[in-house]
Amino acid sequence: MTAAAAGTTPRTTSFGLPGGALIAGEWQTGGLTFAVTDPHDGTPVGWVARNDAADVDAAVRAAARAAAEPWPLWQRREALDEAARLVRDELPWLAGIISAEGSKTIGEAEQEVRRCAETLRLSAAAGPVLRGEVLEFDDSDRGAGKRGWFVRAPLGVVAAITPFNDPLNLVAHKVGPALVAGNGVVVKPADTTPHSALALAELLLRAGVPPARIGVVCGAAATGHALVTHAGVDVVSFTGGPATAARIAAVAGPKKLLMELGGNNPVIVCGDADVEAAADAIVRGAFGCAGQNCLSVQRVYADASIHDALLTRVTAGTRALKVGPKTDRTTDVGPMISEAEAARVEAWVDAALAGGARAHTGARRSGAYYHPTVLTGVPADADVLVREVFGPVVTVVRVESAAAAVAAANSAQALHAGVFTGGLDEALSIADRLQAGAVVVNGTSDLRIDSMPFGGFKSSGIGREGVRFAVAAMSEPRCTIIAGGPQHQSTVNRTQ
């Protein structure tokens, strides 16, 4: 879309990037009318394109053409290995972008860059997932004289819709597997944090990914709608909220859908647990990235025998956290992604307090900053207990038994869960009964290794991420069958 069409003055590119969108192998340098702001104070930090349906169409068609061209697996592997190296080399630049346009402190941003490099390295190593098998035709009387095999083939074009809270690594989690599987990919990053995706695309091109095989389109909901409904898109890989996921599912048409939708994650602390270790881990797991993490600890079910001691330690640890600017390396908790999101969390907490809950610390907002909050006595139907808060709030609940804790934990949708106990039998018994994609023993829900199968059950998502599992999801078996017979045999004889 031109600047004239947008009715605004074009802006220059930001953060040293070559453009504000990447379409059909070309960087868009004009018509950059979409402002990106720092949630700390709302000041603009850069400008990207506001791409329309025509831009999306060009990006998807180019990605499809590029995906149809030969690109051997060894070249894909080398390009992704080189991209991992470039990401490590460009850590200060990338971390600066992540922190400037998003919620993360500079330390959290640096950790994300390191994880992104690991995700790309794992993607490069995931080629063996594409191996096939010989088909066992002799296992059927209709298979006599036939030979065949299958390999895993790319699906075509992957639409990657990514969120703001991990704006670099979650792009890598979609783009890396899509590329190593042989697909083309078009990324629509969160409108609040698009520069991180553009920076990764620039490094991928520099590493040898063929132009047009990857595209990045920017803008708001209309841009995403044009992408997920495009007939040339074969897979939609989405990370975000369930309401948006429902809209995508309703309009995308007959496409493969891969969705990671977060959860309201519980941690159970048994009576024989190490209370100090549990409390420290809960504080770390609840308030990283200002609680805007799909694995954040939101609900803590503490055995009555240790409830008070745990609450005291969690409250003290939370009070000790420093809330402040993202650029200050002593800051523990930065702003939420917007003042509107902080106001939403404030409203949820205020409603719980009005219903009889008690705040032991926090429960106050300053612009986009919401201070880390510990609650008890929360009504059973309060939003902060039954919905994903996606903010710096944790609720501690007293329970009388492990069975009661498990029942309460399973009352809301979880992605991951944690259990603290000194007994292995108890840990395994609880883990078997929890409804979650992963249960961390003597740790919290806030644990993800980028190679593990990642996802939850029920409304927490569809499919699994984790590099090799995503590669499998972004490819399908393709069979080759030699029917045999006299004509085939005579052809073989003539070639000998």
Plain-language structure description:
The chain is of the alpha/beta class. The protein is 38% helix and 19% strand. The longest helix is centred in the N-terminal third of the chain and has 19 residues. The protein contains 17 helices and 22 strands. Helix 10 crosses helix 11. The N terminus and C terminus are likely disordered. The chain starts with a helix and ends with a helix. It is globular, with a radius of gyration of 25 Å. The strands form 6 sheets. Strands 14-17-18-13-12-19-20 form a 7-stranded mixed sheet, sandwiched between helices. A 6-stranded mixed sheet has the order 9-8-7-10-11-21, with helices on both faces. 53% of the residues are buried.
Quick recap:
The protein is an alpha/beta fold. The protein has 17 helices and 22 strands.
Task: Spell out the key features of this protein.
single chain; 496 residues; alpha/beta; seven-stranded mixed β-sheet; six-stranded mixed β-sheet; 22 strands; disordered C terminus
3D shape: globular
Quick one: biggest sheet? Answer: 7 strands, mixed
Would you tell me the structural class of the helices and strands? alpha/beta
Spatial order of the strands in the main sheet? Answer: 14-17-18-13-12-19-20
* CA-based gyration radius: 25 Å
**Tally of contiguous helical segments:** 17
As a percent range, the share of helical residues equals: 25-40%
- Give a count of the beta strands, DSSP E runs of length 2 or more: 22
Please mark out the parts with pLDDT under 50 across 5 or more consecutive residues, or reply none.
1-10, 488-496
Question: What is the arithmetic mean of pLDDT?
Answer: 94
Distance between the termini: 61 Å
Strand content: 15-25%
